[in-house]
Amino acid sequence: MPIHTRNKISASFSMASMSDLVFLLLIFFMITSTLVAPNAIKLLLPGSSSKTMSKQTITVYINANQNFFVEEFQVNEDVLESQIAQKLEGQTEGTVVLRADKTVPVQNIVTVIDAVNEINKKNGTKHKVILATLPK
């Protein structure tokens, strides 16, 4: 007497759950990629062949119109030092990344460096300034 099984194994494979997973991943990556905005202020950075990388604490921008920005907030040159000091508060070794348009006069770059040096002198800290460039 042959033994008959009630549950038969189906040889077909359903791709419905796999396609759902692919579409969910696609939507996830599309949403997260649009949220990333590395440079909110449009600049033409100068080119350089050096590749110094550092963990940045804050970013200071100087655009072609010689306007200063700490992070994305425009500040006057007179309050630049106090705004940078406020962002660096509580840190002893921070890094200020300076993103200056390549048409900006050197004096504006020196103004940011002097502001950070004054903060270092007043607080006894060791903050440094790095000039951001584009690779050649």
Care to describe what's here?
This protein is α/β, with parallel strands linked by helices and 136 residues long. The protein has a domain at 47-135: Nucleotidyltransferase, domain 5, CATH 3.30.420. It is 34% helix and 18% strand. The protein is built from three helices and seven strands. The strands form two sheets. Strands 4-3-2-5-6 form a five-stranded mixed β-sheet, covered by helices on one side. A two-stranded parallel ribbon has the order 1-7. Strand 3 and strand 4 form a beta hairpin.
Primary descriptors:
single chain, 136 residues, Nucleotidyltransferase, domain 5
Short summary:
This protein is an alpha/beta fold.
Number of strands: 7
The helix-and-strand class reads alpha/beta
CA(first)-CA(last) distance:
82 Å
Catalogue the unreliable spans: none
Alpha plus pi helix count: 3
Q: Give the percentage of residues in beta strands.
A: 15-25%
Topology:
Blueprint: H1 16-35, E1 47-48, E2 58-62, E3 68-70, E4 73-75, H2 80-87, E5 95-100, H3 106-123, E6 128-131, E7 134-135
Parallel strand pairs: 1-7, 2-5, 5-6
Antiparallel strand pairs: 2-3, 3-4
Helix pairs in contact: 2-3
